[in-house]
Amino acid sequence: MAVTLCELFLEFLRRNAMVAVVILAVLLARLLLKKLPKKYAYALWSVVALRMIFHFDIPSFFSIFNVFVYTGHGGVLSESDRMMPDPAVMGNTDGAGQAVWAGPNAVLDAASYAASGTLASLTMFQKVMIALGILWIIGIFVFLICGVVSYIRCKRRTRFAVKRTGNIWECDDLPSPFVLGLWKPQIYIPFQMAQGEYEYIVAHECYHIKRKDTLIKPLAFILLAVYWINPLVWLAYVSMVRDMEMSCDEAVLSTFGSEIKQAYSRSLLSFATGKRNVSFVPLAFGESDASKRIKNVLRYKKPRLISVVVAVLALAVISLVCLTNASVTTEQEERAGLDEKTASEIAQALEKAESENTGIKATGKDLIVTKADPDHDGETEQIVVCEKAEDLYELKVWKQDGTLLWSTEAGTSHAEWNTILLYQDEGEDYLIQYLPVMYQGIASYTCTMFSLENGQVSEKNTWKVDFDSMAGITGKMRGFFEAVNYLLENSTVLFTTEGGTPVTGPQKAADLQQIYPVNFYLEDGLSEESYEVVYPLELTFCSGAGGWSTTLMLYEDGHFDGIYEDGEAEWTNEYPRGTDYYCEFSGRFREMKKINEYSYSMMLDELTYKTEVGKEWIKDGVRYIGSDAYGITGGEQFILYLPNTPAEVLDDNVHAYWPNEYMWRKKSIHFLYDYCLYNVNEGAAFFSDVFM
Questions:
Q1: CB crowding 575-610: b at 16 or more within 10 Å, else e
Q2: pLDDT tens track for 226-236
Q3: Which one, of 288, 273, 1, lies nearest residue 118 by Cα?
Q4: In this prediction, what percent of the chain has a pLDDT beyond 70?
Q5: Which of 41, 51, 50, 47 is nearest to 240 (CA)?
Q6: 448: left (phi over 0), alpha (psi -120 to 50) or beta
Q7: Residues 444, 471 contacting (CB under 8 angstroms)
Q8: Interior/surface letters 351-384, b for 16+ CB within 10 angstroms, e for the rest
Q9: What is the pTM of this model?
Q10: What is the mean pLDDT of residues 236-244?
C-alpha cells in the first residue's frame, strides 16, 4: 500500500508539471487575446481541464513539450527520477537498513514486497514521497468537505425562497443573484428587482444554465481539489471563473444591446457593495470580481469577423501544442514503452533478450537497481542484478531495446568480490568498479571510472596501487586513499559482494563499512613520511585526450633514454596502417640539487637522437616520420618533484597535465603521490604513474 501511494504521488507530480506548462501557455494566450470577447478566453480553459483529466499519447512536432525530456508517463524526467529505484522492485534490508538480496522469487514482485516490507525497508526518498502523498490526499478531502459545507450553507439561505416563475425564485438577504443546483439548477434573485434589471440579470443566469456551466464549475472545483498543491491551478481556477462570468455579461449585452451598459454596471456594483460573493461554492454562480466585470462591460464592443477568426485560430493552436506530446524518436518511443511496462513484463523482456543475445539463462529474475545513462547517448539504461547461480551474481546494463550493453560477475567467495558504483561527473553518468584484493599481505587495489560509449568500455581514470601490508605506507597508497575515498563518498553503490555478503543499492557507499573508507589493513594507519628518489624512474608525458606520449627512463647517474610516439590516420596502399611520428632519444641531466624536502633541480646536459628528425621510412605497413623528443626539446631547467609534494605549490602547467588535476579542483586530493619531472622552459610535465 505504501509503495503504491509513493508511485501514485510521483505520477501526480509528473502530471502536475505538465499541467503547469499548459496553464502558463493559456495565461499567455489570454493576455494576447485580452481585447477579444471573453467566451474565447473561457474556451481556452477547456484545454487545461482536458490535460488535467486525460493522458494524451499523441506525438506532435508542434507540441509545447518538445522543449522537455519526454518520458512514457508524459512528464519531465528529473535527476531524482533517474537515480531513484523503482519502488516496486526494491529488495529487503538488513538490520542496519542496508538493502540486501531479496531472493529470485521476490524481486520485481510488488505484492511480495508490500507484504514482506515495512516502513523501515523503504528508502528515505520513498518515505518523504509517502508522507507528502498522505498530505495531498488529506488536502483533497478537506477541499471536498469545504465545498459540500459551503453548498449546504448556501442552500440553507434559500430555504424560504418564493417561486416567481419557472425555475426562478425570489429570496431575502441574498448577496447577489445566482444559480444553484447540478441536475435541476434554480435561479435565485433578491426581492423587488426592477423589471429592466430583472430581465438582463435573469438572462445572465439563464446563459449559465444553457451553456452547462452548472456542470463545468463543479468539475473545475474538483480538479482544484485534486491539484490543490499547485499554485498555478489556483490562479487558473480564479481566472476561469472570472472569464465564465464575463462571457455571460457579454452575452447579455449582445442580446439587449450596448445601451444597458450603464444600468448593468450599476447592478453589478450594487450587488458587490459590502457583500460576500459565492464564487467559491462549487454549485453556485454569482457576483465575482465586480470591478473587473464592470470594466469589461463598459469597454465591450461587438466583435468583428476578423476577431472571431483570430480567436478560433488561437484556440486551435493552443489545443494543438498543449494536447499533444513531444514528437519522439524511435529510441525514445522504445524507452517510453519499456518504462510503462509492469515489473514482471520488464523481467520477461530482459530474460528473453538475455537468452537471445548471450546464450546465458539466469536462474532468477532481475532486480532493477536504478536507471542511468553510462553510454552518454541521452537514453537511460536499466541497471539490474540477477542471481546466476548459488553465491554468484551478475550486474547487467540493458538498453531499452533489450541489448545487453555491459555486464560483470560478483561472487561471495573472497576471490570473486566485486563492487560497482554509479558516479556523476559534470552531469554525466559513469560506472566505477572498485576491486581491493589482498592475499597473504600482498595487495593490489584498483578503482576504475569508465563509461560505455558506443557499447565499449571507455576508461576516464584508473587508480591502482600494489603494496605489501608489512612494508608501510607509500605515496601511491596515500594518493589512492584520498582519491578513491572521495569517489566513494560521492558515489552510489549499485551492487557489492565485498565482505562476502551481497548488497544491492542504490545507497551511499559511506553507509557500507566493508567499502568505505579504503582500508589498507595497516596497524599504524597513514603516517607522514619523507621521500628519497628511488631509481630507475619511468616517467610519461601525455595528454589524456590525445594519442601521443613521451616516455623516458631516468637513472641515478642522471642518464635517461626514451621514446616519443604520435599516430594519425593518414594512409595509402603503401602504408595501410597509417602514419606514426616517432623519436628515440637519450641524454643526461647534470647539477642535480635538492631544493627542499620534496623537490630537486637539474639542468639538461645533453640530448641525443637515435632517429633522424624529418626522415621517413615504412615498416610493417606503417609510415614513420622522425620527430623531436616532445617534452624534452627546448628544455634547460628541470624540476623533479617527489611524492608528498603539496599540490598547491605545483606550477599551473604541472596541474594541466596531472591526471588527478580534476580531483585537485574538487579539493578531494591535496598531494602529489608519485614522481613528477617538470620542464620549466617548455611547461611539460612527466609523471611516474599516469594513473595517479
A1: beeebbbbbebbbbbeeeeeeeebbbbbebeebebe
A2: 999 999 999 99
A3: 1
A4: 78
A5: 41
A6: beta
A7: no
A8: bebbeeeeeeebebbbbbbbbbbbbeeebbbbbb
A9: 0.45
A10: 90
